[in-house]
């Protein structure tokens, strides 16, 4: 069952989110966990979260938000994080989470959903190639210190 993240989900969400950080080799601090969790729990913050619950256990998560798209003069959806427990991969949970975000986007009038992934994340890219169109854009970033 896919649903919005609830306050009672903290421990299971934390376990999944720490695995997500490990996958991308990004250390997640206690402070970072608290910050992201507070964003998700704050109805006035743009970051929202979905979880996939199976047999009373969380096995997947997705964090998303509305994002201005000035060129098109509208809000679109940005999918920040998508993670499925490794033991559940291949069971289309990621596809189901993306499908739920599509439904949310329709209800909110977001005409587009955008996300990025690592070039070497082949398993996820197989899913993304199935459900979305790869764009012509390259992503760059500047680390501001």
Keywords, separated by commas or semicolons:
single chain, 145 residues, alpha+beta, Aminopeptidase, 4 helices, globular
Descriptive notes:
- The chain is built from 4 helices and 5 strands.
- The protein is an alpha+beta fold.
- It has a single domain, classed as Gcn5-related N-acetyltransferase (GNAT) (Aminopeptidase, 3-Layer(aba) Sandwich).
- It has a 5-stranded mixed sheet with strand order 1-2-3-4-5, sandwiched between helices.
- It is globular.
- The N and C termini lie far apart (about 40 Å).
- The mean pLDDT is about 95.
- This is N-acetyltransferase domain-containing protein.
- GO terms for molecular function: N-acetyltransferase activity.
- It holds the Pfam family Acetyltransf_1.
Number of helices: 4
Q: What structural class is derived from the secondary structure elements?
A: alpha+beta
Beta-strand portion reads 15-25%
H and E order: EHHEEEHEH
Question: Biggest sheet, open or closed, and with what strands and sense?
Answer: 5 strands, mixed
